[in-house]
Amino acid sequence: MDWVITKAADSTCDTESRSDLPRSLPRESPAEIGDSITIHTNGDRIKVTVLGVVDPAVIKSRGIKGTLAMLLGEGEDDRQDVRRIAVMLRMRNLEDASEQGVVQGICGGVLFDSNGHEYPSTGDNVENCPSVWVPNRGQQPKVMCDTFEIPEKAKPALYALATSGEGRAPAGEWRLKRSRQASIEWKPDCGLKAQRQLLETGVKAWNAWRKAHPKVEVHLASENLNGRDLKGIDLSRANLEGTNFAGSDLTNANFSQAHARSALFPKAKVSSADFSECDLRRASFFEAYADQAHFDRAVMVDATLEKMQAYAARFCGADLSDVRGIEASLVDCNFKGAKLEKADFTGALLDGAVMSGVSLNGNKLTGAWLRSADLQSAVIENVSAYGANLQAADLTCATVSDSDFSLATLVNAKLGNAIIVNTRVFGISAWDIKGTPKRQNEIIITPEDQPRVTVNDLEVANFVYLLLNNEKIRNAIETIGRKGVLILGRFTERKHVLEAIKDEISRLDLLPIVFDFERPTNRDFTETVMTLAGMSRFIVADITAPKSVPLELQAAIPNYMVPLVPILAEGENPFSMFEDLWKKYRDWVLEPLHYESVEQLTRVFKQAVVDPANERLEFLQLRKAEKLVARRASDYEDRASGNTERPA
Asked: How far is it, in rounded angstroms, from Cα 512 to Cα 552?
């Protein structure tokens, strides 16, 4: 027997009705009855579990070897010294049904007795149990029997199963004694009818029976339990594959560690139910009510959560890869430690959800609501978040890359130490961002159908795009620089002065920009004044009262060559520092203009304010256009030698 034999059991084991149960025995311990070994065939992985030994076995029909014996005239009388036994197996194809591939049938096994004698499989069919053949991809697990003829007094000791009859074939080996891992003897499905009848008597009787017989396996696979009142029922560790619970009330039910692949829960009430460590692959919770339900460590790959309502439910450590949560309401749910790769939450409500540290790789969050969601240290990669609302979401230390956040809302979001790389933010609303991102590179501000334009600052992305694509915005900025007149002062008690200046500036086809220092008084305006000053054609500052122009004006004057026209009422003096400012920056700071009344000021406003400001602006523009001309030492040679003539 030239096989490549695996003797160590898998870390998980199957039973007749359940899959992938944790195995508590030490690693590399030999496989026994109740243990599983995964055999790698030609492209497939087959998980084989030895359920038990049927001794003696009742043969329903003969296999190839038995048929040949009959053809050779070997009758039953010639076989009185042998007995027939069967090794009962469960086989499960672990490959995805969508993958192409050729399934290679398992040819059968070999049995060894306690003396080391070898017996090949006969291929006979046992009553109520088919012969060995590997299930195809996508098929349900199968229970089958491998039959043998051994001497009457022989004791089965070892069983080996290979994937083909060729040399060096992969194989598994089991010792034929009850594993310490297996605590339940294998029993045929004769108890299914009794379980169905017991369930009909009500939840109270059912739960009492479960409590009295905790080791009995529950088999309700593919049962139709829709529209029932099953509040508080104990279905933990049960086989519920394909079971229909549509519209049933399962509030506070216990599904922990159940095998519920492809189970149906549409419009069912599962609030406060316990699905922890439950196998829910391909299960459907369409429009189910699951407030405060527990799905911790559940396997929910490819499950349907569409339009599910699950306020404050827990999905900690659950595998939600490829789930469809379209328009689901998952407010305040906890996804900490969950796997969410390629999950589709299009249009879902995830406000307040806890997703700190999770990997959102390939997710769809188009139109989703994640207001105040906790995404600290989350990895958001290749995510479509078009139009998503992340207002006040916490993305501290998060990594956002290769994603689309076009038209998303990030108002008041926390981005301290976040990394944003190669992400599209066309039309994003990113006002009042909290914290400073650690790194911002390749932030794409144009839509997908336009040439790629990038910036390295999220908060300026909108502004830059508007400058590039909105002629009105560009014209507005040009208008401010060409016509804008900044009016500075404190106008609380002298409102009529402000109104008069504004009206006169507007009458002269200029754009008045008013900055009143009176409102509010608890802020530093230095940056604001400097920004407005740098955009204006010239500045009019009312310095009538000693405190009318704060220190912000003194900070702005030295930084911009913008004409400043100071005005003040007759009989008032400029503040003490103004004269020094005028002496240092008189090229653009004009002499103060005293006025006796507002009427007088408006009569001479053009001649006394606007015209001098424009003249000074022209002078400054010429100054700015001047080119630097270097002097040459050679021009001073004559002067150095005593010639008093000036150089030409």
From this structure: 19
Q: What separation in angstroms does the CA of 396 have from each of 335, 383, 420, 461, 462?
A: 17, 18, 11, 20, 22
Biggest CA pair distance of the chain? 147
Q: What's the token pair of residue 481?
A: 């620089």
What are the counts of helices (DSSP H) followed by strands (DSSP E) for the chain? Answer: 13, 25
- CATH 3.40.50.360 residue ranges of the chain are 475-625
The DSSP H or E segment spanning 539 is: strand 538-542
Integer Cα distance of 264 and 323 in angstroms = 15
Cα–Cα distances (Å) from 443 to 113, 419, 574, in that order, read 71, 11, 49
User: How many whole angstroms separate alpha carbon 533 and alpha carbon 480?
Assistant: 10
In angstroms, rounded to a whole number, what is the distance separating the alpha carbons of residues 223 and 242?
7
Residue 67 · residue 212 · CB < 8 Å: no
Q: What is the pLDDT of residues 191-216, one digit of tens each?
A: 677 788 788 888 998 898 888 788 78
Hey, which residues does 513 pair with through a beta bridge? 486
Instruction: Give pLDDT tens digits for 428-442.
Output: 998 889 999 999 988
- What the block records as the tokens of 592 is 């103060």
In 3D space, the residue among 157, 215, 188 whose CA is nearest the CA of residue 88 turns out to be 188
21's tokens: 């149960």
Task: List every span in the chain annotated with CATH 2.60.40.1240.
Answer: 3-178
Give the other-Cβ count within 10 Å of 211's Cβ: 9
156-162 vs 108-113, strand pairing mode: antiparallel
CA dist., res. 256 & res. 238, Å (int)? 9
Q: How far apart are CA 71 and CA 67, in angstroms?
A: 6
What is the rounded distance in angstroms from the CA atom of residue 19 to the CA atom of residue 41?
A: 20
CATH of 3-178, one of 2.40.70.10, 1.10.630.10, 1.10.357.10, 2.60.40.1240: 2.60.40.1240
CA atoms within 13 A on the CB side of 445: 21
What are the C-alpha distances in Å from 486 to residues 353, 483, 588?
A: 47, 10, 15
Q: If DSSP codes are grouped into helix, strand and coil, which group holds residue 344?
A: strand
Please give the DSSP secondary-structure letter assigned to residue 139.
P
pLDDT in tens, 286-302: 999 999 999 999 999 99
| Angle 118-50-211 from CA coordinates, rounded to 5° | 150
Both tokens assigned to 268: 């069912």
Sequential DSSP letters for 56-102:
S--EEE--HHHHHHHHTT--GGGGTTEEEEEEEEEEEE-S-TTS--P
Residue 389 sits at φ, ψ, to 5 deg, of -110, 105
Q: What is the pTM of this model?
A: 0.55
Residue with tokens 């009742």: 58
Cβ-contact 177, 31 below 8 angstroms? no
CATH of domain 475-625: 3.40.50.360
Q: Per the structure block, which two tokens stand in for 624?
A: 């700015």
